Amino acid sequence: MQYAEDVKFWVAVALTTFIKWLFTDEVAPEDETPIERRIRLRRALGGILAGFLAAYYGHEWIIGKIESLTEDDTVIVAIVLAITGEHIMRALMSISAETIRDFIVRKLGGK
Predict the structure, then answer these.
(1) Residue 58 contacts residue 81 (beta carbons within 8 Å)
(2) Cys-Cys link to 81, which of 6, 29, 55, 91 (CB 3.0-4.6 A)?
(3) What sections of the protein cross the membrane (predicted)?
């Protein structure tokens, strides 16, 4: 990416994650303890970080895999990944070791 495209990319990702954060429907209960508040804050920051990471590391891969997308679609792909990044990361983290092993064995042609 060139500098102007890089700025446009990061502004789009930052605004998208900010808007996503604004529209989260998780409301802090009135009797929330300090520990619960820290957990809620960490979960929110984790979601934002996951969105940034998915947008940064995933946009080029997706553009390379989907033939109808071009470099001009970088910002749109990054926005979609910023919105869905938290869910993608949660899904990846929930995969069991056995599932990963079975996938690798199938890809390598083993049994």
Answers:
(1) yes
(2) 55
(3) 44-63, 75-93
- Pure H helices in the chain: 3-22, 34-65, 74-93, 97-108
Q: Which two tokens stand for residue 22?
A: 């604004």
- For residues 43 and 81, what is the distance between their CA atoms, to the nearest angstrom? 18
Q: Which residues contact 90 (CB under 8 A, 6 or more apart)?
A: 50
Contact 20, 82 (CB under 8 A): yes
Residue 71 is classified by DSSP as G
Domain ranges, ordered by start, for the chain? 3-108
| Terminal alpha carbon distance of the chain | 42
